[in-house]
Each structure stands twice: as C-alpha cells, then as structure tokens.
Design a protein that fits this description.
The longest helix has 21 residues. 47% of the residues are buried. A 10-stranded mixed beta sheet has the order 3-4-2-1-5-6-7-10-9-8, sandwiched between helices. It is globular. Helix content is 44%, strand content 18%. It folds into 2 domains: 239 residues, Glycogen Phosphorylase B (Rossmann fold, 3-Layer(aba) Sandwich), CATH 3.40.50.2000; 209 residues, Glycogen Phosphorylase B (Rossmann fold, 3-Layer(aba) Sandwich), CATH 3.40.50. By secondary structure, it is of the alpha/beta class.
C-alpha cells in the first residue's frame, strides 16, 4: 500500500483548534495518518456561495488535510437534513424523530457525488481508501462509477438499526445496495454487524457465505466487528499533564469534601440525559442521607443547534435541571451542576480523575469513547467507578463497569448507591479489568484490525 486516504464528513485543519480539544475520532484518524502516508479529505465546515471543488491543503504534525467548502443548500439538505434529521434518529431507534424529505435525500446524494468527483483525481492506483460513517454511505459507489478500482473500506461509527426500522426509510434498499461497492465494512459490535447481515440477506437477497463474507450481484464484501478504542498511552499521559493536574486540583477543591459524579456528553437525545437526570433525582429521593454528600456535574456542549429537535433538548434539560435544583438544593449545596460548553481533553482528563463516578448512560450509542477515557484517567491506587449503559457499544468490552438499563430510574439510583459505597478493593479490581480492555483494544489495535482486513481483500 502506498498511501492511506481517509474520507469523512468533517475535517478539522491542523492547528485550527487548541491543543487537547480534538475529539476521540479526530485523534484516532490523525494517528492512522501518521503511521501511513496519505491525507484526510472532507468538508471544512465552512460555507461558500458556489461550490467550485477547490481543495485547501494543509499539513501539520505529520497530518495532511484536504478540505472543501459546501454551499448553504448542501449543508441544509445533506448535513442538517438527511444525515442528522433522517439517518441519525433512525439509526438510534428514534423513528418518531426521523424526517423523510425528498430534498434531503437529493442533497445527500449530490454531496456524495461532489466528494467523489473532487477526491477522485487525487487517488493513485495503489492507495487504500477508508471512508468514515453514515454521512458517506454512497461514496464508495460513486468512486466506482468514476473508475476507482482501489480497495475501499467503510467504518460505521453508529449502530446499525433493526431490519423493521430500516425498512421505514424511503428507498432504503437502494441506499444499502450502494454499500456493496466497499470491500470491507466495519462495525463496533457483533450485534450491529449481524443486523446488517440480516437486512441484506432478508431484504436484498444477498448470500451469507461460510467464511462470513456477503455476496450480492457479483460483489463480495467482508463485514467485520472492529470496536474503536482510544489512544490509551496518550490519554494516560494527558491525565498526568500539568493542565490535567491543575484541573483535578480545582475540581477536588470545588467538591468541598463531597463525591462527584461526572457525565460528559454532546447535547443529543441519544445520550439519555433526561433519563440520567431523572435517575439521579430518584437517588436523591430514595437516599436523602446522601444528598449533601454528592453532586452531579453534567457537561453537555450544544451540537447541531440549527436542528429544531436539538433546540428542544436544550430547553427541556435546562428546565429539568432547574426543577431538580429548585426542589433539593440548599444554601451550601446544589445537586446538579449543568454546563453547556465543551472543554479540552486535557482539562476533561483532570475532571474524570477527580470524579468518584463516571456516569455514561446513552439510550443507544455506537461506542462511546468517554467511557474509555474515564477509565484511562483514573488513579490506579484509588479509582472511580464507571456506571455504563447496556446499550452503549462500549458495554461489550467494558465488563468491569456497573452495567444498567438507562431507561430505569430505579436501576440508576441503585447503581449510584452501589458505586458510592463500593470498597477500594472492589473498585481497584473492577478498574483493572476495565483498563486491561482499554489498553489491549486501543486505537492502534482498531486501526490495524481494519486496515489488515482491507488489505487482505
């Protein structure tokens, strides 16, 4: 392989964000490009009056990015529309929130064609192409139409929905057929991979072969389970940095002797934040003796603010946190600290380390790297406890967590009490099991597993 080309919806140009502020996926993909030559192609996040296909190349810290700007109509129909108002809710079991607009589907297809048309001249015969996520399902097919014979793989970072739910998507079969342009498709869990296989076999008539490969209309793809990890050594080192130590000390001082529960989630209905607040309120009601001994810090940076559903989430959570604080707060204690802004990863590492409990309770999540970062940030001699939703992809790997049903306020209340009263020996034992997984199946393992599968096709 001469180069690895990564294609994703958004690409953040090197040096455009403060140190430590990049998300887990961005860090993982940048690490892949440092190991292999190549570049990272995608949307810059910027708008243009007219799409020209102009590519802005930048290089920093060993990573080359190639970005394009999109028109307002592209952003509205492809990104805000089909990706975030159609596919995202559907693939997270929220069929009640999915919006099916013909213009959304048209914009989605148009942008995928623009991506293919723009990146195709940059691709050399021996390159391997690694496409990321649901924004770009048709990209492989569009590249094939333009004569691209390279190895092309797709990794899906979100769950794959059950067949009956996906069938509600107009022209779902046509969309899924385009995936057979890929050579390898990666999923976080066996459940998502099996859901995909069931759909293509039952709905499209594909053949599941003895070796696990799937064939349809002369094309064969390899579907693999390949859960993403974090750069564990890097995050452990970050948790011991000067910034993290300062953040840790500030949080411990602000705790004033109380135990802190921390949640860090993008403001999204899939994260189960309303259910989390209600479960925590149930804990306050059932254990009044614990009220002034603990508090919940919920960090929830806004996202997709132009989408009405996300505006409503923010309004609902502000009202709920205000009601709970109004009902239970005292002059020297507030049960919920609710913060609508993001923080750099090195600052978060210190916050994680200061928290007695990490509360990661999505209603449905492809992976959830916050759970793994919380584990990696802990003090091995006195670690906190991870409470984790059974419906997060991370639950398959992180068996040492306290696993719960996030829809059950009772289970959440019981888990919080269990974590607060857990003795040090059990906390260390559970953390060791968690850390073994986070270290063994880290981002390097994920990257190598996927690329090896792609190169073996």
């Amino acid at each position: 392989m001469s180069r690895l080309i990564i294609v994703s919806n958004r690409v953040q140009a090197p040096g455009s964000a403060p140190a430590g502020s990049q998300g887990g996926l961005a860090v993982a993909l940048a690490a892949a490009l440092r190991e292999y030559s190549g570049f990272w192609f995608g949307w810059s996040g910027e708008r243009t009056d007219q799409f020209t296909g102009h590519i802005n190349f930048q290089r920093d810290s060993g990573v080359t990015t190639a970005t394009i700007d999109l028109e307002d109509q592209d952003i509205e129909e492809y990104y805000n529309g089909y990706a975030n108002r159609t596919l995202w809710p559907l693939f997270h079991d929220r069929i009640d929130l999915a919006e099916y607009e013909r213009g959304f589907a048209g914009g989605y297809q148009r942008v995928n064609e623009r991506f293919a048309e723009t990146v195709r001249p940059l691709i050399e015969p021996d390159d391997a192409i690694w496409v990321q996520d649901y924004h770009l399902f048709p990209l492989g097919s569009e590249l094939r139409k333009r004569g691209c014979k390279n190895r092309i793989g797709l990794f899906l970072h979100i769950p794959w929905p059950a067949r009956r739910l996906l069938s509600s998507l107009p022209k779902a079969e046509d969309l899924v057929r385009t995936l057979f342009a890929y050579d390898v498709i990666g999923f976080h869990t066996d459940e998502w991979r099996e859901s995909f296989s069931e759909y293509v076999v039952q709905q499209l008539g594909a053949v599941l072969e003895a070796d696990g490969n799937i064939s349809l209309a002369g094309r064969t793809i390899k579907a693999i389970t390949c859960p993403i990890g974090i750069d564990t050594p890097e995050f452990v080192a970050m948790s011991r940095s000067i910034t993290a130590r300062l953040s840790h000390r500030q949080m411990r001082d602000s705790c004033n002797g109380r135990d802190m529960i921390v949640g860090v989630d993008r403001l999204d209905y899939s994260k189960g934040l309303e259910e989390r607040f209600l479960g925590y309120e149930r804990f306050l009601v059932e254990h009044p003796e614990e009220r002034k001994e603990v508090f919940l810090l919920q960090i929830a940076p806004p996202s997709r603010e132009s989408v009405e559903t996300y505006q409503q989430i923010r309004t609902d959570l502000e009202g709920l946190s205000g009601r709970i604080n109004g009902a239970y707060a005292d002059v020297d204690w507030v049960p919920i600290r609710y913060v609508n802004q993001g923080y750099p990863r090195d600052v978060l590492a210190g916050i994680y380390r200061a928290a007695r409990i990490g509360l990661v309770t999505p209603l449905r999540d492809g992976m959830n790297l916050v759970a793994k970062e919380y584990v990696a940030a802990q003090d091995p001699e006195d670690p906190g406890v991870l409470i984790l939703s059974r419906f997060a992809g991370a639950a398959v790997q992180l068996k040492g967590a306290v696993l719960i049903n996030p829809y059950s306020a009772e289970e959440m209340s019981d888990a919080i009490l269990l974590a607060l009263r857990m003795d040090k020996a059990e906390r260390i034992s559970r953390w060791r099991r968690l850390m073994d997984s986070v270290e063994a199946e880290d981002v390097v393992w994920w990257r190598q597993r996927f690329v090896d599968a792609l190169m073996a096709t």
